């Protein structure tokens, strides 16, 4: 399968790595070559660690890297069989990309979005191929995490669903079908916990380290919720909370004011060097 991954951020990079490692020629697209090359270097470093640990051979590393083709032109999507979009969690941005791709891509090309929370039905409606639009929600870090939530929009065809479900299995992931509701299952549950942890910090209940230690040692979570929020990106966490809040119209999803303030300050977590912790 020839694939284009759009967005060379932490998710797009991980998705491109996994697809290329599984023999798929994969274009990696972003708004600048510099961003894409930075991501490809990062993937190269991760693969080198796997070589050092004896998990893959140096040849496998080189072959995987050679299948990742950097491009800033959407026109390269013309001969692709699958698009996986992983740009910012913003409906307008995603709609704009998909309506452009709809004119470029062949009719049989499937459009998958890695959105964390946005309605697939609305994304599909921006195209003339709503039957070939689907959610393929990977977890972070993509090469490590087994789950892929598969979200069908109102018009997604059975054929599209079967292709994506099989692809997820072929790359050794575990697909779970979920309905097209805000936040799906993963973020409907997870983000409420993260938001509540931010409220604890906001109200001075405990320090960030204290909150995370409670959840790690008390609940056996591998990461504390604030550490995890920093890892996801606080801009993404806020975007997901807004989708949940507006989507369900329920005040239990109200984003904590401290989260809004951090995002306004440019404190996006690990990717910007500062969030609840300093990096
Ligand atoms: P990120 O901030 O690391 O990367 C986003 C990338 O998209 C950036 O490199 C940016 O330059 C690029 N971009 C923005 N507009 C673009 C455009 N018009 N064309 C091409 N590239 C464009 O974000 P991240 O964390 O990789 O998230 C991406 C998507 O994946 C979002 O929809 C997010 O909700 C979802 N997601 C995020 C997870 C996480 O843990 N961070 C987990 C699962 C899904």
TrEMBL record:
Q: Which SUPFAM superfamilies match?
A: 6-phosphogluconate dehydrogenase C-terminal domain-like, NAD(P)-binding Rossmann-fold domains
Binding positions for NAD(+) per the UniProt entry: 7-12, 30, 89, 94, 116, 140, 271
Q: Where is the 3-hydroxyacyl-CoA dehydrogenase C-terminal domain?
A: 183-279
Report the residue ranges that make up the 3-hydroxyacyl-CoA dehydrogenase NAD binding domain in this protein: 2-180
On whether Signal is a keyword of this UniProt record, the answer is no
Q: Does the keyword Ribosomal protein apply?
A: no
Pathway assigned to this chain's UniProt record: Lipid metabolism; butanoate metabolism
Q: Write out the GO biological process terms.
A: fatty acid metabolic process
Q: Which UniProt keywords apply?
A: NAD, Oxidoreductase
Site Important for catalytic activity: give positions: 137
Q: Which residues form the signal peptide?
A: none
Q: Which InterPro entries match?
A: 3-OHacyl-CoA_DH, 3-OHacyl-CoA_DH_NAD-bd, 3HC_DH_C, 6-PGluconate_DH-like_C_sf, 6PGD_dom2, NAD(P)-bd_dom_sf
Q: Which GO terms describe its molecular function?
A: NAD+ binding; oxidoreductase activity, acting on the CH-OH group of donors, NAD or NADP as acceptor
The family assignment reads: Belongs to the 3-hydroxyacyl-CoA dehydrogenase family.
NCBIfam families listed in its UniProt record? PRK05808.1
Its protein name is: 3-hydroxybutyryl-CoA dehydrogenase
List the taxonomic lineage. Bacteria, Bacillati, Bacillota, Clostridia, Eubacteriales
């Amino acid at each position: 399968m020839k694939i284009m991954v759009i967005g060379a951020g932490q998710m797009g990079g991980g998705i491109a790595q996994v697809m290329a490692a599984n023999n798929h020629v994969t274009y990696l697209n972003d708004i600048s070559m510099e961003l894409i090359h930075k991501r490809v270097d990062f993937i190269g470093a991760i693969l080198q660690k796997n070589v050092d640990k004896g998990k893959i051979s140096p040849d496998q590393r080189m072959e995987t890297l050679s299948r990742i083709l950097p491009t800033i032109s959407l026109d390269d999507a013309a001969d692709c069989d699958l698009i996986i979009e992983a740009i910012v969690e913003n409906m307008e941005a995603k709609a704009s990309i998909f309506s452009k791709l709809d004119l470029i891509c062949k009719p049989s090309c499937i459009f998958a979005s890695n959105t964390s929370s946005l309605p697939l039905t609305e994304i599909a409606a921006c195209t003339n191929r709503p039957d070939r639009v689907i959610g393929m929600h990977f977890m972070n870090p993509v090469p490590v995490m087994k789950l892929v939530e598969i979200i069908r929009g109102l018009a997604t065809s059975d054929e599209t669903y079967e292709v994506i479900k099989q692809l997820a299995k072929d790359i050794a992931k575990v697909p779970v079908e979920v309905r097209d509701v805000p936040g799906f299952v993963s973020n409907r549950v997870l983000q409420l916990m993260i938001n509540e942890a931010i409220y604890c910090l906001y109200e001075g209940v405990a320090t960030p380290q204290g909150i995370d230690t409670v959840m790690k040692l008390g609940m056996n979570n591998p990461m504390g919720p604030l550490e995890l929020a920093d890892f996801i990106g606080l801009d993404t966490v806020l975007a997901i909370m807004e989708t949940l809040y507006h989507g369900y119209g329920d005040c239990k999803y109200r984003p904590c004011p401290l989260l809004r303030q951090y995002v306004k300050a440019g404190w996006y977590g690990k990717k910007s060097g500062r969030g609840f912790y300093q990096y």
